[in-house]
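Exercise 7. Given the encoded structure of a 170-residue chain, write a plausible sequence.
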């Protein structure tokens, strides 16, 4: 909550400072607002990147499922094992469970890291597109919609950002 108020305070100061500077120079202040979440969900380039990530994720989950099936098979083997075979099968099961847990942890960590890298790359690309759009359109300030309490639809540039982002990926 404190962070939100601090962020809002900084943005408010920035807007007033920009307006004061523009007033001194007799420059119009043009502000744009865009919805990053919508851009990430609707832009074709972002969708394609997410689909590639999802494909990678499904392959990793399939590998994990194979390992889980092997553990289940060994559990069944233990149930059917004779008292003489049971200690060896128990050791095998313990080793497989340990391998499964390690693999699961590794895959989860790898997927989180990959998702973060992908998201950061896309956000950086979108930032460049927004910067270029703002420069070309003469916008003094562009804000992300999540930090704005209220804004007119007339200053929403989200759809134009989506089109511009997709155009950079052709």
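Solution.
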């Amino acid at each position: 909550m404190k962070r939100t108020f601090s962020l809002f305070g900084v943005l408010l100061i920035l807007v007033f400072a920009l307006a004061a500077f523009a007033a001194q120079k007799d420059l119009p202040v043009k502000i744009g607002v865009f919805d990053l979440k919508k851009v990430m969900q609707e832009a074709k380039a972002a969708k394609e990147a997410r689909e590639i990530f999802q494909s990678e994720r499904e392959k990793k989950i399939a590998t994990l499922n194979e390992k889980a099936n092997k553990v289940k098979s060994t559990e069944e083997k233990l149930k059917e094992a004779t008292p003489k075979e049971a200690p060896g099968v128990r050791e095998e099961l313990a080793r497989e469970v340990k391998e499964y847990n390690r693999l699961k942890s590794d895959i989860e960590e790898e997927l989180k890291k990959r998702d973060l890298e992908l998201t950061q790359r896309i956000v950086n690309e979108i930032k460049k597109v927004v910067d270029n759009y703002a420069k070309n359109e003469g916008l003094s300030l562009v804000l992300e919609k999540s930090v704005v309490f209220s804004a007119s639809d007339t200053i929403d540039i989200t759809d134009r950002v989506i089109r511009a982002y997709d155009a950079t990926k052709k």
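Remark. The domain at 2-168 is CATH 3.30.910.20 (Protein Binding, DinI Protein; Chain A). Students should compare their own answers with the one above.
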